[in-house]
């Protein structure tokens, strides 16, 4: 049973771009996207763009091949594999969509590292078009959050995740993100949890003027190397503390500074068990 739950945003956190913009720009519908942007919610606009791509003869395979080229820093790949191999419960909270995220993760051998993907649903309709739906049904009452977009409140998702694992005992959460909605999720973190905001991105600007609203510890990062170094250092610290707490009732005191963690960026992962999906 994992005691540490690591939650990743996807766009501009895990991959170094916005997956929606990547598809729009790389497949040549930027002009129409820009024209329609003032008239539709983002999620509905992406559904419209995917239908437009289908009308232009672009296939699901074309979209998948484009997604596989989206930039993903190798250091982030290794950090995800290290965290998974150490026994952490890894999850995604993203305003992208299921098809985009699963295609990219599978391409990089990361899909089985994650126990759950919280994102906008997607499906292929009877005409063979990729469609995207809002995570929060627009026909339902609004979620009421003024920070997040109307199709998804990451704070509510964070509350749902915390409630779903509460029966398993005390958990420590680490949340990584870059956007304003990730700040909303960060507001649901508690003391002892960690928020890892991407520096010089929207979440960082919000934190700079609203840090008093947060109870979690804050550890910023800037790029893939920073993310890996910071995340693995945090996990090393957590697991070292766990080692120290074992046997505290024994007569011989354990000196924690002599303990080292097995989590490194050079571990091999052949023995990591895939997470059932």
Main sheet: strand order: 3-2-1-6-7-8
Q: How many beta-strand elements?
A: 8
Order of helices and strands: EHHHHHEHEEEHEHEHEH
Global mean pLDDT: 88
Largest sheet: 6 strands, parallel
> What share of the residues does DSSP label as strand, in percent?
5-15%
Amount of helix: 25-40%
How many DSSP H or I helices? Answer: 10
Taken from the alpha-carbon principal axes, the silhouette is globular
Structural class given helices, strands, pairing?
A: alpha/beta
The Cα radius of gyration reads: 20 Å
Distance between the termini: 16 Å
Protein topology:
Layout: E1 4-8, H1 19-26, H2 30-36, H3 42-55, H4 60-67, H5 74-85, E2 89-97, H6 98-107, E3 114-120, E4 122-124, E5 130-132, H7 154-165, E6 172-177, H8 180-186, E7 194-197, H9 202-210, E8 217-218, H10 224-245
Parallel strand pairs: 1-2, 1-6, 2-3, 6-7, 7-8
Antiparallel strand pairs: 4-5
Helix pairs in contact: 5-10, 7-8, 8-9
Report on this structure.
Helix content is 39%, strand content 14%. With 277 residues, the chain is α/β, with parallel strands linked by helices. Strands 3-2-1-6-7-8 form a 6-stranded parallel sheet, with helices on both faces. A two-stranded antiparallel ribbon has the order 4-5. β7 (194-197), α9 and β8 (217-218) form a beta-alpha-beta unit. The radius of gyration is 20 Å and the shape is globular.
Put the structure in a nutshell.
This protein has 277 residues and is α/β, with parallel strands linked by helices.
Keywords, please?
globular; 8 strands; 39% helix; six-stranded parallel sheet; alpha/beta; 277 residues; two-stranded antiparallel ribbon; disordered C terminus
């Amino acid at each position: 049973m994992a005691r540490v739950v690591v939650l990743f945003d996807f766009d501009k956190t895990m991959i170094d771009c916005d997956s929606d913009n990547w598809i729009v720009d790389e497949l040549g519908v930027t002009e129409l996207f820009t024209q329609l942007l003032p008239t539709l919610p983002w999620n509905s606009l992406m559904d419209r763009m995917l239908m437009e791509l289908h009308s232009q003869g672009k296939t699901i395979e074309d979209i998948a091949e484009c997604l596989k080229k989206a930039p993903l820093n190798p250091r982030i790949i290794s950090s995800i594999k290290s965290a998974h191999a150490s026994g952490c419960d890894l999850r995604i909270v993203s305003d992208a969509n299921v098809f985009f995220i699963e295609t990219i993760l599978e391409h990089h051998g990361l899909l089985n590292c994650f126990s759950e993907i919280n994102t906008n649903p997607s499906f292929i309709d009877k005409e063979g078009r990729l469609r995207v739906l809002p995570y929060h049904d627009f026909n339902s009452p609004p979620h009421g959050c003024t920070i997040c977009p109307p199709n998804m409140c990451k704070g509510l998702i964070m509350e749902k995740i915390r409630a779903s694992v509460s029966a398993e005992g005390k958990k420590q959460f680490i949340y990584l993100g870059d956007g304003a909605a990730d700040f909303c999720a960060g507001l649901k973190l508690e003391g002892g949890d960690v928020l890892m905001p991407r520096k010089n991105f929207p979440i960082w600007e919000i934190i700079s003027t609203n840090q008093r609203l947060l109870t979690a510890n804050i550890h910023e990062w800037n790029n893939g190397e920073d993310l890996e170094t910071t995340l693995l250092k945090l996990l090393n610290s957590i697991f070292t503390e766990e080692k120290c707490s074992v046997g505290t009732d024994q007569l011989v005191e354990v000196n924690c500074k002599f303990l080292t963690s097995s989590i490194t960026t050079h571990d091999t992962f052949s023995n990591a068990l895939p997470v059932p999906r």
